[in-house]
Amino acid sequence: MFDVAVIGCGVVGSGIACELSRFRLSVAMVEKENDVACGTTKANSAIVHAGYDPEPGTKMARLNVEGSRMMEDLCRRLNVRYKRIGSLVLAFRESEMECVRALYGRGLQNGVEGLRILAKEETLKLEPGLNPEVAGALYAPSAAIVDPWGLAIALAQTAVLNGAKLYLNSPVESIEEAGGFYRIRAGKNNIEAKYVVNAAGTHADEINNLAAKPFFKILPVKGEYYLLDKNQGGVVSHTIFHTPTAAGKGVLISPTVQGNLIVGPTADPASGPDDTAVTAEGLQKIAREALRCDASVNLRESIRNFAGVRAATERDDFILEASPDAPRFVNAAAIKSPGLSASPAIAKEARKILEGIGLRCEEKEHFTEYRRPPLFKDMTDGERRIAFGRDPLYGRVVCRCETVTQGDIRAALRGPIPPVSVDGVKRRCGAGMGRCQGGFCGPRVHELLSRAYRVPMERIMQDKTGSYILTGETKAGDAT
Amino acid sequence: MTKRYDVVVIGAGPAGLAAACKACEKGARRVLVAERDREAGGILNQCIHNGFGLHYFKEELTGPEYAGRFVDLLGKTGVELKLDTMVVDITKDKTVHAINTTDGYMELKAGAIVLAMGCRERTRGAIAIPGDRPAGIFTAGAAQRYVNMEGWMVGKRVVVLGSGDIGLIMARRMTLEGAKVLACVELMPYSNGLTRNIVQCLQDYDIPLYLSHTITNIIGKERVAQVVVSKVDENRRPIPGSEILFDCDTVLLSVGLIPENELTRSAEIAIDPRTNGAIVFENMETSAPGIFGCGNVVHVHDLVDFVTGESQRAGAAAARHALGQQDTGGVLEVEAGSCVTYTVPQRVRRDHVEKSMELFFRVNNVYHNMEIKVMDGDSQLCRFKREHMAPGEMERIAVPRVLLDKVRGDRITVTVVPQEGA
Asked: Considering only residues 5 to 44 of chain A, which have any Cβ-Cβ distance to chain B shorter than 8 Å?
C-alpha cells in the first residue's frame, strides 16, 4: 500500500513525486511509457517564462512567478542546464506597443521583477539582428531557458533515489475506490494507494474520469517547432517573442541551453492527445512569423522539426485542486504553458493540497538530491583528465556532433532510472541531439544498450515501446 | 605533455590514407593519422559493392578492397595510426586536441595538418519532411552500416527518398536481402546519382523511380506505417491531388551530403558556401597556412579515385610545408561561369603547378553536347567537349601550366556553353 500514487511522469508528475519523496511517505510513480519525460515535457519551447502573460489572480499567474523564482536554484542543485537570458516581447506598431504596456502592467500585478519597457534604440542595442522596424519591446530579465526533460529526469531520479517506486510501461486502465484507498490497474501492475495525484498531461481528463465525475475536457493544442543547428544558436541572445494574439504567445525565437536555436511554436488544434505530427502548413507559418521578427534566422540550418501537445481546457487556468467528488484524489491537470516554468511551484502546491485533505507529511532526516553526472563536453580540460582517469571510456566519443562519450553513457546507465531506448540515452546525455541526428552514433548507442541489458539488438527500441529499429538479421547474419 | 608531429592527418578514410602515405613518401617523418572509428577505411568499409578503382587502379574493386590497398600501403610506411581517436579541436597555430581511451586527452603540435573528415548525410530534419516521427527513418548510409557491417536488416517494405548514389545502392542492397523496395522518389526532374547506378540498382530490379516527386507526409506512431508521395511542380512545390500512398515500414533518405567542417570552422578557415568545404588552393591548402583539406570534407565527390588523386596532392604539399617550404606567390582566382555551380580549387598559385592543374566542378542542370571553356577574360585558354553533363556527375579537367602562364588577368573562369553548331 502506497501513501500516494502519482500518475504521469512528466515534469509535473516527477516534480510532485520528488517533493513527496522529501517526506516519510511511500510514493508510487505510474508512467505509461518506457521512460519518464516522454510527453509534453520533451516537446515544448524550453522556456522559463517571467510571468507577465497569465491573467492576474489565476493560479497560472501566481505559480508561474513562484516557479520561475525557484527554478534557478533547483536546476543548480540537480545539475540541470539553466540559463537566465531574459526575454523581449517585440512591438512593431503603436497598437502593439499598447499590448506591451498592458503586459507590463499585468507583469507588475503578477509580481514579476525587473520588467522594463524599452524604446526602439534600446531594443536594437540588446538584439542588433532584429528587424529594424521594431518600435519597442517589453524586457523581462528574469526569463530563462532550461533543459525540460533533463529537469524532469533529474526530479524523477531524485524521487526514486529517495524511495519512490517507479512503474514504467504502466498505462492506467482503472482506478477503483476500495474504501479508504484506491486500487489502480496499470499495465501488468495492481497498485494500491491512499491518495492519487493525476498528472497525466494530455490524458488527464481520461484519468480523472476513471475515478471521478467528468468536469473538464482536454482540448489538445499542437505546437510545432524548428530546431536549428548550433551555428544559429547565437542569432539572438534573448528569448524573442512577438506581441501575443488571442491564439497564444505566438512564435518565439530563442537560444536553447544546448546551444541551438529554437523557433516556434504554432498553436493549432491537435487531432488527439498524442498527435505530435508536424505539418507543412505549420512549418510555413513558423517561417513567416519568425522571419518577420528577425530576418537573419536561417531555417535552412534546421536539424529537426517536432511538435508537442499542450493540455489546454476551456478554463484558462491550471486545474490544480482536490477533486470535488473523489476523495483523496488531486488533479494537477490542464498544465499548459507556462507549466514548465511553474512546475517547481506546482509540486509544492500539490503537496499542500494533499496535506489539506489529510495526508501527513513529516520531513525525512535524509533526503538526497540526484545530481546529473557532469557531461564530458561541459568539463574543463582538468576535469576531463580526472574523468578519464576514473573511467577511460570518457576517451571514446560516441556522438561526434555533441561530443558525448561512452563514459557519459555509462554514467547514465548507472543512474536511478537508466535509459532503455536510444532516445532515452539522447534525453540523458545528448547523444543524437546534434546535426547528424544520430546517423553516426545511433547504431553505436543501440549496440551499447544491447550489451548493457544483454538483450538482442532487435529488442532495443528507438524510443517508445513498439518503435523497433531492426527487423531481423541479414541473410549472412550478425557480423559482430 | 605535448607531442610533435610533422603532419597530422584527421580521418583515415580514403582521403586521409592517401594523404598520409603521400606525405610519408615525400619525406615527412613523423606522420599521425587520427581516426574516430574502430577501423581505417572510412565509409568504404560499408560500401561492399564493386565499381571502385576503375580510374586509379584500372580494375574494379569493392569498397573494402579499395580501402584495404591503402591500409596495406600505410602499414609499410612509418605512419602512426591512432584508431578510436576523436579530434575535438584544432587551432590556427596547428595544435590538435584529441582523445581516446588509451592516451586520454592529448595536445599535439603539427608542422602541417590535413583535414580529411569526410562528410555526413543530410537528415530528415534538414529537409523538414512533415508527419509523425516514428522509428524506421534512416539515412541511407546509417542503414548501410547496419546491413553491411553489422548484419542487421532495417526493414521489409522500403521507400527511398532521393536518388543519390548511396540511396540507389541501398535500394539494390535491400532488395537482395529480401526487402521490397516500393519506390525511389526524387524531388528533381533528374537523378542525382551516377547513370550506371540508376541502371544497375533500380532498372535491373524493376524499382520505379519517381522523378519530380517528394514525400509529403510520414504516418506511423511507433514505427513507419505509411508514407505519402506527391508530385511537385517546377518550383518543387507539392501538387495537391497527386498523392500516392505507400504502405511501408521504412524510409531511407539519400538527400545529399554535407562536408563535416566543424573542426575547419574552429580553426577559422574560410569556407566556400557553394561547396560547404574549405576554399582551397591548387595544392589543397586552405586559407590557414599549413592546414590542407582533401576528399569529401572539401567537396563531395562521386568517385573515390578522384579523392585519392586530390588527397595525394594534399599529402605531398603538407609534407613540403612541414619540411619548411612555404607555398606562396601570385594568386589567380578560379571563377564559376555559366552553368557551373562551383570549382575546386577556387584559387591557383600557378608557380606551383607542375605540368597541369586538375580542376573539378559541377554543372547546375542536365546538358547535352556542351563545351567546357576556360577563359582569361574574353580570351579562351582551352576547351573540352562533353556529350552529356549532369549535376550528379562531377567534371574533371586538366589545365596545362603553359596555358596558366599566359593568363593576363587575376582570374580564370570556367564556363559551360553549347557546342558550336550543335
From this structure: none
Instruction: Using CA coordinates, name the residue in chain B closest to A276.
Output: B132
Q: Say whether residue A382 is in contact with chain B using an 8 A CB cutoff.
A: no
| Contact with chain A for residue B2, Cβ under 8 A | no
Q: How far apart are the C-alpha atoms of A92 and A103, rounded to whole Å? A: 15
Give the confidence band of B1 by pLDDT, cuts at 50, 70, 90.
low
**Cα gap A358→A356, rounded to integer Å:** 6
CATH superfamily of domain region A2-41+148-218+314-356: FAD/NAD(P)-binding domain (3.50.50.60)
pLDDT at B192: 84
Which ipTM was obtained for this model? 0.94
Residues 6+ apart with CB under 8 A from A352: none
Same fold? A2-41+148-218+314-356, A83-145+220-310: no
**Contact B1/A at CB under 8 A:** no
Say if the Cβ atoms of A384 and B105 lie within 8 Å.
Answer: yes
**Checking phi first, is residue A438 left (phi over 0); if not, alpha (psi -120 to 50) or beta?**
left
Between residues 214 and 233 of chain B, which touch chain A (CB distance below 8 Å)?
216-217, 219, 221-223
Regarding pTM above 0.90, the answer is: yes
Cβ pair A231, B276 in contact under 8 A: no
The answer to whether the CB atoms of A464 and B124 lie below 8 A apart is: no
Per-residue CA distances from A398 to A424, B42, B333 (Å): 15, 16, 40
Q: What digits encode the pLDDT tens for the residues B203-216?
A: 999 999 999 999 99
Mean pLDDT of chain B: 95
Q: Which helix (H) or strand (E) holds A76?
A: helix A59-78
Give the per-residue pLDDT at A479: 57
Count Cβ–Cβ pairs < 8 Å, chain A vs chain B.
Answer: 151
Q: Do B104 and A388 count as a contact with CB atoms less than 8 A apart?
A: yes
Q: Are A117 and A138 in contact (CB under 8 A)?
A: yes
Contact B206, B215 (CB under 8 A): no
Which site among A435, A460, A478 would you substitute to test the B interface, given the most B Cβ atoms closer than 10 Å to its Cβ? A435
**Cβ within 8 Å of residue B419, ≥6 positions away:** B369, B370, B371, B385
Q: What span, in angstroms and rounded, lies between the C-alpha atoms of B3 and B1? A: 7
Give Cα separations from A447 to A21, A429, A443 (angstroms). Answer: 35, 16, 6
Q: Residues of A with CB below 8 A from B136's CB?
A: 469
Question: Quick check: A329 pLDDT over 90?
Answer: yes
The domains of chain A are located at 2-41+148-218+314-356, 83-145+220-310, 376-459
**Mean pLDDT over residues A184-211, rounded?**
98
Grid cell locating A284: 510555413
Task: For residues B54 and B60, give the distance between their C-alpha atoms in angstroms, rounded to a whole number.
Answer: 5
The tens digit of pLDDT for each residue in A355-401 reads: 999 999 999 999 999 998 999 999 988 898 899 999 999 999 999 99
- The whole-number pLDDT of residue B329 equals 74
> Where is A285: in which H helix or E strand?
helix A280-293
DSSP string, B186-254: -SSSS-SS-HHHIIIIIGGGT--EETTEEEEEEE-SSB--EEEEEEB-TTSPBPTT--EEEE-SEEEE-
Answer whether B212's CB lies under 8 Å from B187's CB: yes
Chain B positions in Cβ-Cβ contact with residue A274 (cut-off 8 Å): 221
Q: What domains are there in chain B, each with its CATH number?
A: 1-121+256-325 (3.50.50.60), 123-255 (3.50.50.60), 328-422 (2.60.40)
A221–chain B Cβ distance below 8 A for any pair: no
Distance from CA of B61 to the nearest CA of A (A): 21
Cβ pair A396:B100 closer than 8 A: yes
CATH of A83-145+220-310, one of 3.40.50.2020, 3.90.228.20, 3.30.9.10, 3.40.50.150: 3.30.9.10
